[in-house]
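Bumping with the actual sequence this time:
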Amino acid sequence: MRMPGSESGSNYEITKLVLKGLLPMIEYIVSVPNVSPKGALFFKDVLTKTIKHRENTQTRRNDIIDLIIDQIDSKKAEEDVNVFESEFEEDAALDMSNVKKTADNFDKERTLVSNAFLLFIAALDTTSSTLTFIIHFFMKHPEVQEKARDEIMEIIGPKEKVTFDHIQSLKYLDNVIYETLRHAHPFAQILERECTKDYIIPGTEYVVRKGEIVNFSFLYERMRKENESFYNSGEYDPDNFDASNNPDTFSFLGFGQGPRNCIGKRYAMISIKIALVSILRSFQVVKTENTKEKLEQFKFLAGAEVPFYALPLVEMEE
């Protein structure tokens, strides 16, 4: 959202954003929007027109807009039994038993725009940056790239149409994404949570009081070299997340954990896997003369510069 060279990505704007994080009081002196006002207004206008068009024409595309409209318009009590696809989703489930049914009072336009805008911001930079990091590790560890390609060819094939079931079956690719995020993350370095009840830290006499804010540092260097929760924590090895190696899921914070985990995790996993399937079925990614051995992430922006060649597999076979 703050592209280098753009108005919102200028050195002046980035400096203001950093100072705002360090000194929140600065916003009382100078305006520091989280996103470009021009871009935000454009996005709001597009979404508003789309919502009105859907309502007037009854058009459906089964996307995030339709899903939110359906949820808001639903008048039935939510008494369905929840079925979770994974332990991660079960841990993330919020207790809504005490939430009043206020669907009739929702501002539909504001709800749609804010949620869609959140997913748009949270999804684009993070998924594209994670893809960049994966490409780097594929070049550095060609055996991982080859294993991921083998899984794709076995489950999907070289030219078959990709389905949702195919994507869900690519378990090694899941592990590649998790392991990449264990070593490099697009944005966050700290997670912040509010304690909901007094909690004694095991093995100590220290009590975290209800209402206190707790910060969790990602500390990726420590996670790689000292974390006994992964059988080969010192190396880039997707098998660290293989179920047979009993990984401790709460030692991995790539998408957060618990009820306030990443809202876009499922979208991110699906979109990244689809992109990797498209790349690996047709190309071998290899280093160029400008490719660096160590991944160097941008300081105040998501992502990194990772030069690479994409060699067509057909040419390599010939």
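The tokens above came from a reply further down the thread. DSSP finds eleven helices and six strands in the chain.
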